[in-house]
Write the structure tokens for this entry.
Amino acid sequence: MYPVDRAGQRLRLRELHPDDVDAVFAVYGSAEATQHMSFEPRSREQVGQIIDRATQSATTDPRTEYALAVTTQDDGDVIGFARLALDPHQPQGATIGFALRPDTWGAGRGLETVHLLLDLGFDGLGLHRIWGARSPLNTASARTLTAAGLIEEGVIREHVRKNGQWRDSVVHAILDREWPKTPRTRTV
């Protein structure tokens, strides 16, 4: 599926563009935004490389990764990064992840982003299972994933190495039959 352009009430997921580097760097370069992620803050150059890989892989066939910009509907401002990656071990499954600029937190944008990713996966790609992992300390993400309908399934022990220490990950997942078929998003 290319190009992806899915809209919710306030947000949109769209393909990344080379000129999105500074906007994505505002997220991936932020110590606050990456505090609970599996990696340290990225440099601007690293973000450029991520966007280059994302734009190149967007047109591969079959497409296995959807690395997308999260933008506002009203002015198109890029406020985050969202990703859905097909699971090579489970043909009808995928993992999701997202990160938003810290100044946009606390207003339900994370939940809308997850809804857009689930809509892409279930309604757009016909997937059966979508899962995501979070830091045990990221209670905001736990609330967001639960509100989106994902079920906490368990812990992957010492899953991530960050700052020289091992960290667990908490897994949340949802099945296609659990995804509500109510119109939350629209394909543009």
Summary: DSSP finds four helices and nine strands in the chain. The chain has a mean pLDDT of 92. Helices lie at 21-28, 44-57, 109-124, 139-147. The longest helix spans residues 109-124.
